Amino acid sequence: MPLELRHLGSELHVPLKPHVIVTPSGRYAAVHE
Question: Superkingdom of the source (predicted)?
Fold first, then answer.
């Protein structure tokens, strides 16, 4: 997971799962590898 996503998750206090990110709108989006 990119460090930026980890940083974003920690700032929003949202646990990020390996294949899920939180978009700026606060919605969850699947990460397609």
Answer: Bacteria
- Name 29's bridge partners: 21
* Bridge partners, residue 30, by sequence: 20
Write down the domain spans for the chain: 1-33
One-letter amino acid at 17 equals K
Q: Name 21's bridge partners.
A: 29
Average pLDDT, the chain: 60
Residue pair 9/15 in contact (Cβ under 8 Å)? The answer is yes
pTM above 0.70, yes or no: no
Token pair, residue 7, equals 């940083």
